[in-house]
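Feature request disguised as a bug report, sorry. It would help if multi-protein outputs had a clear separator. Right now it looks like this:
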Amino acid sequence: MTFCRRLATSALVLGVGAGALFVCAAPKRGVSFTPSAQAQGIIRNLIARLRGQTLPDGIVKSNGRIEATQVDV
């Protein structure tokens, strides 16, 4: 391997190691990675809208069959 590849590989390994150390040590420092209740509510509402479970005012969702009879006036 060339010197540049060795340097890049070393930097990558050190970065991953530092990230893992940060994540493992975070609970000991009192750092919480859980989103707040407000953020959880916003995410739940967004997911419900994307799944079609909630719709904006004036929009109705239904399942069924429409039949019509042609009438000339």
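(second protein starts here, but nothing in the output says so)
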Amino acid sequence: MTTQVIAAVAEFEKDLLIECTHSGIARARASGKRFGRPSSLNGEQQQVVLERLNAGTSISAVSREFDTSRQAVIRLRDKAGS
């Protein structure tokens, strides 16, 4: 019976911790905090990449020019297209 009480308290504390974490994340997002890894290209570089792609330059050539991955260029192209 003691073990069950300790397990119940531990589960309650876990749920409380999860709730606090989610509310903290929501508060940070509401205040404009960005999550995740920073972009490998700044805003100006992103505009130039999109111009190069619209001009017909290949994704591989653009990624080599800006020393970034092909996937980063593809992701930027797809994000701009939506």
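Even a blank line would do. Unrelated, but nice: The mean pLDDT is 91.
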